[in-house]
User: Fold Peptidase M23 from Microbacterium invictum.
Amino acid sequence: MRSSAASRIQTVLAGLVTIAVVGVIAVVVLFSPRESAPECRTWTAEQRENAATIIRAGQDLGLSERDQTIAVMTAMGESSLRNLDYGDWETSGVRNPDGSPTTSIGLFQQQDEWGTREARMDPYTAATMFYRAMLAEVPEPERLSMEPTLVAHRTQINAQPDHYAPFWPAAEALVADPSGSGGC
Assistant:
C-alpha cells in the first residue's frame, strides 16, 4: 500500500513538473520578440533606391556582386540604408579615439577625412569613395578570402570587427532582388 501511494505521488509530481516545463516553454515562445529574418525585411523606397545606387556605383567600377553586397551590408550597418545628415556624435556623443567628436554623415557614416560634406551626402559619390577605400585597404586576393564583415571593418575602421555580420543575409537578398521583395 505504501509503494502504491508513493508511486501515485511520483506520478503526480512528474505530471506537475511536465506541466511547469510546458508552461515555461509556452511563455518563452509567446513573449519572445519576433523579428522576421533580416533577409525578409521590408525596405522603404528610399532604402531600395540607396541600395540600387550603391550597386550601380560598384557596377560602374567593374566590381563583383560580392563587393557590391559588402558595400550594401556596410551601409545597412552604418545607416540602415538612409542618407543621414547626422551621426554618432549627435545621437550618442561618440568621440573618435583622439577624443574629438565624430563627423559621420551619409549612407556610410563617413567622417570629414573621406571628403566634403556634399560628397559624403551624395549616395553615388559616397559609395564610390567606399569602394575606392575598400580596394586600397583590402586588395582583391585577400578580399576574396576574408569574411565580408572584416572587409567592411578594415575599410570603415569600425570599433567592432563583427558589427556588419548580421546584415550580410539582408544585403545578399537586397542585391539579388533590389525591388526589396526578397520572396517574403
